[in-house]
Amino acid sequence: MDARPRRAERVDRYQRRHTWLGFPIAVVYKAFDDRALFLAALVTYYAFVALFPLLLIFVSTLGFVLQSHPEIRQDILNSAVGQIPGIGTTLKQNISGFKGSAAGLAVGGVGLIYGALGATQSAQAAFNHIYAVPRNLQPNPIRSRLRSLGLLFLLGTAVVVSSGINFLVSNSNGISHQLGLGLKIVGYLVDLVINVGLFSVAFRVLTATELHLRDVFAGGLITGAGWELLQAFGSRYVLHEVQHGSALYGVFGVVLATLAWIYLVALVIMVSAEINVVRGRKLWPRSLMSPFTDNIDPTPADLVVYESYVRSHRFKGWLGIDVSFNPPEPRGGEPRAAPD
Fold first, then answer.
1. Could you give the C-alpha distances from 241 to 86, 150, 257, 261, 332, in angstroms and in order?
2. What is the pLDDT of residue 335?
3. Which residues have CB under 8 Å from 270's CB, separation 6+?
4. 318: Cα separation from own chain's centroid
């Protein structure tokens, strides 16, 4: 026997016995099965479309509410755009001169509804796909959009609170200098808790299956922490890419950096959803060679996953789907036990 298949079999047996290796492999395999990279790209498109109308509405609202307090308005604007690492400064330079107007609110509102609803709808479709929810059990077009609107209201409230906290603890205003280090740390922790809770609720609301907080908390925690880390450590990289890209491509460099930043966030969300479903449904270990060949010794998790992929395409409740398995015999020639 060739030494390479034998080594692969040894690694496969090892990862099946050890969760610390088998679990991340199962998450990666599930992500590739679900094409999580493409799902993240779809969310990125709609989120990018919603970003600039959102800023337009934000600046217009500040112009109306804080028209007589330009310093406070500028401090809040600095804090808000600062949450988009690297590109925030460039965005601020292009929108800081914009004044509040009814036309700006109207145009921004239409663009925001299109982009925000598209982002939540695509995220909803992605989560249902990841959880292999049959099409007949997914909400109809009206219910799905009502669910998305409810989440958007929650998102808007959380963004306002989060922006307020970031405004208080940031170094771009006089208030932060009056706060001690301890209070600033508490502020960041509160912001993290809000983000974890927000993403956990989003996983529950946007998935058309019964999920409890324990089923989505791990993904919410990873997404919330990932968001904070991307803001803290990703800003230098994105800023470098913006400066380098602006020199080469001008405004297109800013657009590319913005898309890259949003895509990273969307990818973290998709991977967190994969972690939720693999952990909640115990979909590990997987066969190490399952993505590469049909000649595998499938694990029980493999059989559950492949069956769910087939059943997820049921469009009507009165459609019957029967799934059977006939995997190849093991190399050793011993008969395979019939799957349950």
1. 9, 36, 6, 11, 54
2. 45
3. 31, 36, 37, 39, 40, 43, 126, 130
4. 34
**According to the model, what pLDDT value does residue 169 have?**
61
| Residue 25: HSE in the Cβ half-sphere, 13 Å Cα cutoff | 22
Residue from 193, 190, 144 nearest 166 by CA: 190
Tokens 């020639």, residue located:
333
Reported residue count of the chain is: 340
Rounded CA gap, 213 and 155, in Å?
A: 18
Highest mean pLDDT among 21-35, 75-89, 310-324: 21-35
Of 103-107, 171-175, 217-221, the least confident = 171-175
| Beta strands in 159-252, from DSSP E residues, in sequence order | none
Lowest mean pLDDT of 101-115, 234-248, 301-315, name the range: 234-248
From residue 205, alpha-carbon distances to 50, 156, 281, 315 in Å are 20, 15, 18, 21
Q: What is the mean pLDDT of residues 89-103?
A: 57
Residues 6+ apart with CB under 8 A from 194: 158, 161, 162, 165
Take residue 319 and report the two structure tokens written for it.
């459609």
SS3 percent helix, strand, coil of the chain, rounded to 5, is 75, 0, 25
Where residue 11 falls among pLDDT bands split at 50, 70, 90? very high
Q: 40 near 108, Cβ under 8 Å?
A: no
How close are the terminal C-alpha atoms of the chain, in Å? 31
Maximum alpha-carbon separation in the chain: 83
Q: Does residue 291 have a cis bond before it (omega within 30 degrees)?
A: no
Q: Report if pTM > 0.85.
A: no
Give the residue among 173, 170, 174 at the shortest CA–CA distance from 191: 170
pLDDT-derived band at 337 (thresholds 50, 70, 90) equals: very low
**Residue 281 pLDDT grade (very low, low, confident, very high; cuts 50, 70, 90):** very high
Cβ neighbours for 151, distance < 8 A, ≥ 6 positions apart: 120, 201, 202, 205, 206
Q: Is the Cβ–Cβ distance between 85 and 258 less than 8 Å?
A: no
